[in-house]
Amino acid sequence: MPLESVAWYSEMEVNNSSSPNWRLDKGEQTANSNARLSTAQAHYTPPESPVRSAQRQSSYAENGFFQNYLRAFCHFEPPTEAEANDEALLMTVRIQPGDLILIHSVHANGWADGTVLTTNERGWLPTNYCETFDHPYMRNLLSAMTHFWDLLGASNDENLSTFVRQDYVRPLIAGVRFLLEHADCLHRDAPLVQRSTGLRRLRKGLLADLSSVVQIAKRLQEVVAEPLVGDAVQHLLDELMVKACKAVTRAVGFVDMLQQEGVGVVPLKQSSRKSVRVAVDTSAREAQHGKAHDGSELPDPIDSGKCFTEPAEPKQISEEDQAAAGDHVRSNSQKRLSRGPGSLISHRLSTVRYDAVHSDGLATERLAQAHDVCISQIAGFIGLYLHSSNPASELAAMTRRLQSTCDTMLDVLDRIAAVEPLGSCSIRKARRMFQWKLNDLTVETDKLFANAVRLDEDIVMEPSHRDHLVELSTSLIRAAGDCVVKVRRIVEQIGDFDLENPPSTRQAIPHDEDAVTGANNTEGQSHSSDPRPATSSTDSQSRSTQNASPTTRQRAKTTTAVHDLTRESSAKTSSRTPDKSISLTIPSYTPMESKADAAAPQLSPPNADTTKSARSSRTHSTSPVRKFSVGASISTSTDTRLSSMRDSGITAVSEISTRATTPDHAKDAPALVNSVDSFSSIPSTGNVESSIDAEAQLLQKTYANELTLNKDGQVTGGSLPALIEQLTTGDTAPDPQFVAAFFVTFRSFTTARELAQALIQRFDYIGEDKAVGVPVRLRIYNVFKGWLDTYWKVDGDREALGDIRYFALHKLKPLMPLAGERLLESIRKISASSQNGSASATFAPGPRKYNALSVSQEEIDCDAPEPMITRSQLNTLKKCVADSTASCSVMDFDPLEMARQLTVLGSRMFCEIQADEFLSLEWNKKDSLKAENVRNMCLLNTDVAHFVGDTILTPEDAKKRALVIKYWSKVATRCLELNNYESLMAIMCSLNSSVVQRLKRTWELVSKKSRARLDELNTVVDFSRNQMSLRRRLENAPTPCLPFLGVYLTDLIMLDAGNAKLRQLPGVRTSTGEALTVINFDKHMRMARIVAHLQHFQTPYKLQEVRDMQAWLHMHLDRMRSCNAQMVGDFHRRSLYIEPKRDAASATHAMLALPKLPEFRRATDPTASRAGAGSRDGSGGEEQQQQQSQSQQLVRPKTAGYAPTSKSFKSGGQAFEFLWKTRFDFKGRGEGVVEGT
Amino acid sequence: MSRAGHQREHNIAVIGSGGVGKSCLTAQFVQGVFIESYDPTIEDSYRKQINVDGRHVMLEIMDTAGTEQFTSMRELYMREAQGFLLVFSITSLSSLHELTELREQILHVKNDPHVPIVLVGNKSDLEDDRRVSRSRAFALSQAWGNVPYYETSARRRINVTEAFVDVCRQIIRRDLARGAAYPSSRRGAPSRGRSGGGGGDSRRSRRTRDRYDHDEDDYEPHRRRRDRHRCVIL
């Protein structure tokens, strides 16, 4: 039976700790890059057991949620250099009562990896010296701080794009503002501030800290913009972090002071869930404290500061204990951080990225796995029953499988629920539901099998029965999904954690282990070279097997038992491994009262016995040689990697999958000058400012807390005011990409009128302040101007014009006459042009939109290469267009010229497309006028494809057809050279269509070279893997380029379908307590990125247009368009006609001979008449006439445009085709009628 | 039945006219429950591994969403795909009618009357706007050789996976059956099809073969099973 949980550590992967940067001390660390910082983190060596500093035991209030912030209430001193000649000892950090600590991960043994904000040191610290810190006023600031940390931590040299702007500090400011606002201290002359000197001072300090954060951010921005950055950036980043930490620390002090001043916390309506939890914890804690301390002062649940301002605990270990320290006693029980059995370490959920190697162990991952398997089994189950008449044995096997997977799922659920006992209520409910459904299903299937006589017999099921089963299983799926959602929600709150360790690698990792003390290291050498004592590891393994039992119960032991056993075990261990055994404990903490509350998740109260036990066991460790302890990170060196992953830049890698394909324009942001930016002269706010100005600037009303950014600092979501704020930042130029995306897409999440009003509101609330108000107001003006001049949509935005005019006249003009005048000017222009009804070129949305009219043809012509066309060809063309009987063949033209003309044709159409045509997503709706140009483009593609098919299928001679194929393959190659992917795709589609592909005889005659060329082209247009090869090419295609639109159109549609309109803001609550849902700007950003990508292709080709050829092409394409609908069937028939199926092997020239026709016809007759029988009697005659006219229409222009070789055959072929066609159209209709009824 | 250990890959095309919610259907299927943002531009945006009757299969969904007008491309999709989801919206009768033509084309291209198909009536959550009655859609599915008919709601995530799994199951069954009936796999040259068949044009022969196949069904257990697909209306 293991003793109370004294962590015991195997030495597993310590050897990495030789990195010189292992210590995150701010003195040493400042020059180090953050990336290094984080990798170093992975190699943390364990903390020293904090025995000496166990002066006071107090409650550690871990309430079950993963807490991002802890607050120390007790002093913890890492050993000095003198005592610790080992690095391991230095990995711990000093904590002082009152220190606020940002927690990165928590090991099950109670050590946490955290950054002490007061000192900005990072290291391991004992969580039982700390309690959770949560103050309603502070939440926004703290959550901002967490993001801030992540942001800075994630940045490395390659990724400094965030810092070209200062937005990332804004949430911090918003957090402080939130705090001050709710504390009623927003203004300097607020009564509370006037009254209390302390508050006044702290408030001032806080604001000063904040403004220095802003200053540094500003400096950083300047430095990053410079070409050669290096250490300077790192230096600034470190400084920034220090300052931010300081500000937060100060804010904590402020909250404490507030408490002292007796200002009650006006309860915000926080998320009910959370506040309830706090209350429960508090009361539970108080009860325990009451017992333990006999009324000693309890920490206030909210004002945690009290517990250090008035320390209640006597100091119990004197200094000489420390001085004498050769031996450190590490026997103690340790309450784990409310993680469930088997959970080793918990992380902030946000920090955990899925990682292929380690993902298995994380609760969420396991759950997802179990869920997936479960769902697919149920699906399989449904499928099996649905399709019935399976042998009973198969059904039985399936049912068994289903049950076992569901059991696995339940098991996972249980284990997660065990970890989080309080919050698991909802899980349990969902779980119960799930189990019920499962039981129902089992019962039903059992019934079924009861009826089955023999196992190998098919089970006959009533349809109703089957339906019932299917219904049950679908509800089972739903229940499972519900469970997952619930669990996920809980896990988000408590942090993700390792649910279970794969036995192979982690067996030796202790969970709640007994004390194994007395480790000596006579050599005093670094533990990294220290071989692992075999006895210990076996020991640990044997023990870890017992870990599965819930620790809470184990903890219900008498203290005496604990030390007796501890003593024993320590003696035993040290005797067994006198030299090498490594020992460690968490700072001691023995739960004496725990009998009473075995199930309580809180730590039991501290008591004097603990120290006694510590002492007594210390006396038992006899070795005089200095020991060192191997702390948490040994065993967690694998596990912590997960958390350190966040900073180490691997996070960035994990995001690359998405980033790789979306070019990151943000990086060149500083180089880009935004049109919106052009007017305003931003006064430098960074220099000498009075404190009043600084304050006003800092405390401006802001919605920054309603904004989320991703790791790159790009906006992913926000409420409209928050987005507007981002659009009109006073201190930095707004991100041009953001501005463009906003303007292009805003109509899909708001209306023009709302936008105008929100901008005006921003104008109002920002105030007239010189330092803050004026630059922002100028920007607001700029936004309006940019909107009116560049992005205005005549019909869509008209409703906002009145508002804007009012604003310009009555608000802007009085303050900024010049700006007001200019805005009015723009308004006048717009209203004038809208009255004229001319959508003039100025109103084309999108700054880069090319307008065909604006570039003169001459300009193009002078640079363009000479068309490769002869005079005689031109004459023929002219004749062709004028007179439909004249003909000329595509083959007459040079392939290059053909490619060029196709390009000119497509490019012109492409350049017509407006940005909002793409965003309307309406090119598929036939009656919609919103995306006409896109639709035309699509149709053009099809027309070209049909044209190609038509030319191939027309010649009767296989040799000729082969030549036509060769010709088009050349054209396609030329198109690729011209970056004309649109025509390339059309041609390839046609060449790959079944009607062309099936022409075996023709392909036999196509030269090897042409076929090789086509193979090559096929790799370009390859459909597989989401058209990756085409995407890659288009991504980096130089302009001018005519992209294949289909890829982008699908992307746009799928983006719209796959991303929600709104997103929830993590960690931010509205004042009414609900999670804030804001506009999912990420979606719009992505769409805008696609549109921008397309727009950047909208540059005209420098190619000369050959008018006659264009006319000729148009003629043919129009012909294709006119019979677009019938094309598929028509081609099929023609393909069969020129190379009938049955003759595939023989008779190359068979089809040229007319006599064959009757026979052929006869062969088709029976089928046709049978199929067409239904409709023939009624409408046959009429249809025949229709068909006749149609087919003539079809055939005549074709022969006109393309001269077949044998004139004599022409009429015969036509006649035949007509007959042919009629047959099949009958059949088609016949089927339609049958199906329709 | 083999418990195929190695993973197969199947292409499934989602086909239907614009605005029937194909994209939502695909997005719902491919996307996990908790994906923060869906990026359709990456290589595996349309790939999903599922488990069908104990077999792990990788599905690549080919969605024609947004490119319905590229009729020439449609055929390439059809050639690549082994199974088809023919989607219409229960709120639009014309979307159902358009499927008839599309199915015709599929049969052309695949040259196979038993190509795995599932008829899907999407937007089942919009019951009030229903324009296509269940019986009507079901009758059509029957007329198509008893293809399964599903009514789905991409928005509510009802029956989405089921429809895909059904096609996938059909593909697997077919592969298995072919493996038994035709030792040499005839996949890979779908467009050339059953070129060894009798004379006449392909339509006629397909028709007749269709007929024969139906007759044969009575003697072929796997066929029979397939033909007993029922309409599932949940």
TrEMBL record, chain A:
Chain residue ranges for the region called Disordered? 277-342, 515-648, 1157-1210
Composition-biased stretches (Basic and acidic residues): 283-296
Here the segments flagged for biased composition (Low complexity) are 535-546, 1168-1193
Where in this chain does the record put each Ras-GEF domain?
894-1141
Which Pfam families does the UniProt record give? RasGEF, RasGEF_N
Where along the chain is composition biased (Polar residues)? 518-528, 547-561, 571-588, 605-624, 632-646
Q: Among the record's GO biological process terms, what is one?
A: Ras protein signal transduction
Q: Name one GO molecular function term.
A: guanyl-nucleotide exchange factor activity
List keywords of the entry alphabetically: Guanine-nucleotide releasing factor, SH3 domain
Top-level taxon of origin: Eukaryota
Report domain N-terminal Ras-GEF positions.
711-831
tRNA-binding is among the record's keywords: no
Q: Entry's InterPro entries?
A: Ras-like_GEF (IPR008937), Ras-like_Gua-exchang_fac_N (IPR000651), Ras_GEF_dom_sf (IPR023578), RASGEF_cat_dom (IPR001895), RASGEF_cat_dom_sf (IPR036964), SH3-like_dom_sf (IPR036028), SH3_domain (IPR001452)
Give Gene Ontology CC terms.
plasma membrane
Looking up SUPFAM superfamilies in the UniProt record yields: Ras GEF, SH3-domain
Please report the stretch or stretches of sequence annotated as the SH3 domain. Answer: 65-135
PANTHER family, from UniProt? Answer: BUD SITE SELECTION PROTEIN 5 (PTHR23113:SF354), GUANINE NUCLEOTIDE EXCHANGE FACTOR (PTHR23113)
Q: Know the name of this protein?
A: Ras guanine nucleotide exchange factor domain-containing protein
Q: Which organism is it from?
A: Neohortaea acidophila
Q: What is the lineage of its organism?
A: Eukaryota, Fungi, Dikarya, Ascomycota, Pezizomycotina
Automatic annotation (TrEMBL), chain B:
> Do you know which SMART domains this protein is assigned to?
RAB, RAN, RAS, RHO
Using the UniProt annotation, give all residue ranges assigned to the region (Disordered): 180-228
Which SUPFAM superfamilies did the record assign?
P-loop containing nucleoside triphosphate hydrolases
A cellular-component GO term for this protein: plasma membrane
Q: Which GO biological process categories is it annotated with?
A: regulation of establishment of cell polarity; signal transduction
Residue spans of biased composition, Low complexity class:
184-193
Q: Does the keyword Ribonucleoprotein apply?
A: no
Gene3D superfamilies the UniProt entry points to: P-loop containing nucleotide triphosphate hydrolases (3.40.50.300)
Q: GO MF terms on file?
A: G protein activity; GTP binding
Q: Which UniProt keywords apply?
A: Cell membrane, GTP-binding, Hydrolase, Lipoprotein, Membrane, Methylation, Nucleotide-binding, Prenylation
Where does it reside? Cell membrane
In what way does this protein cross or attach to the membrane? Lipid-anchor
Q: What is its EC number?
A: 3.6.5.2
Top class in the EC scheme: hydrolase
- Its catalytic activity? GTP + H2O = GDP + phosphate + H(+)
Q: Do you know which PANTHER family this protein is assigned to?
A: RAS, DI-RAS, AND RHEB FAMILY MEMBERS OF SMALL GTPASE SUPERFAMILY
Which family would the database say this protein is a member of?
A: Belongs to the small GTPase superfamily. Ras family.
This one is known as Ras-related protein RSR1
